[in-house]
Specification:
Length: 277
């Protein structure tokens, strides 16, 4: 944990923010500490460990503190025991990031900071630049082509085209290229995934509603043998119950949800870090 804290502190210095670290094995101490954060901090990055899956007291503390809180996990909890697939704190957090090792904290810190910035002010900061040009595929599922026209309170006022354009711009800065696709058909996404091996170095997918029931899509992602990151624009855990479960999450390296279009940009950074090692 000291190593992770050191990495986060170094990143915070680069981003010109102040961070404070706190760890406790006691649920009540965590509750009390979160209570003290109200009106004193701009955001909380929270890995609640096993408490994630059952502590209603922590959920209530996060809700009462009214401080933007982002849930993070080192591992992809959706690849582990079924009881870890449920987070009782996720509905009161702004979003969730899991599966990227210690880098989950770095992505989480940037995600929290960027919720305070204008959409055009996204900070891109990474230590790992790819020396050989990499190519990544970004796939969006049903109805995401309607961004900017449907439920802007949930999805934001930007369009999918804007997201794709920002991804293209940021990819250039990383000596990488992006191919962006959107399909309303499950079969079309599967066809696209089947051509990915050998052509792309990694995948970003927002499968939309298909994420919650398409086992065919899950099989297709697994068959690519490519690192795949699942993205949700909204915090799905704060929405209808059927959206709380993703059937494709277990075959992805990690998940980013609730951070709007910035989720795509953070996923790009995570992929670059994964494939540049």
């Amino acid at each position: 944990m000291e190593e992770i804290n050191s990495e986060v502190a170094e990143e915070a210095e680069c981003l010109n923010v102040i961070v404070e670290f706190y760890q406790s094995n006691y649920e009540g101490e965590l509750v009390t500490f979160i209570q003290t954060c109200r009106d004193k901090v701009d955001g909380i990055l929270f890995n609640a460990g096993a408490y994630t899956h059952y502590s209603i007291a922590l959920r209530d503390a996060i809700s009462a503190a009214q401080v933007p809180t982002l849930e993070v996990h080192i591992s992809n909890v959706y690849q582990r025991e079924p009881f870890r697939h449920t987070s009782v704190i996720a509905p009161v957090c702004v979003g969730q990031i899991c599966g990227f090792g210690s880098h989950s904290y770095i992505l989480g810190l940037r995600g929290l900071i960027e919720t305070k910035l204008p959409a055009s002010s996204v900070i891109i900061h990474t230590k790992k630049m790819t020396s050989k040009k990499k190519k990544y595929m970004v796939i969006s599922g049903p109805n995401l082509n309607l961004l900017g026209t449907r439920k802007t309170s949930i999805y934001g006022e930007y369009s999918l085209e804007e997201i794709h354009n920002e991804l293209q711009d940021h990819a250039i800065g990383f000596n990488a290229s992006i191919e962006c696709e959107q399909f309303n058909s499950e079969g079309a996404i599967i066809d696209c995934l089947q051509r990915a091996p050998g052509e792309f170095n990694g995948l970003i997918i927002n499968a939309g509603a298909l994420a919650h029931y398409s086992y065919a899509l899950r099989s297709a992602i697994g068959a690519t043998l490519l690192p795949c990151i699942e993205v949700f624009i909204s915090n799905v855990h704060a929405r209808e119950e059927f959206r709380h479960r993703s059937v494709i999450a277990p075959v992805c390296v990690g998940l980013i949800s609730g951070l709007g279009k910035r989720g795509y940009l953070l996923a790009l950074e995570a992929l670059i870090n994964l494939t540049s090692v």
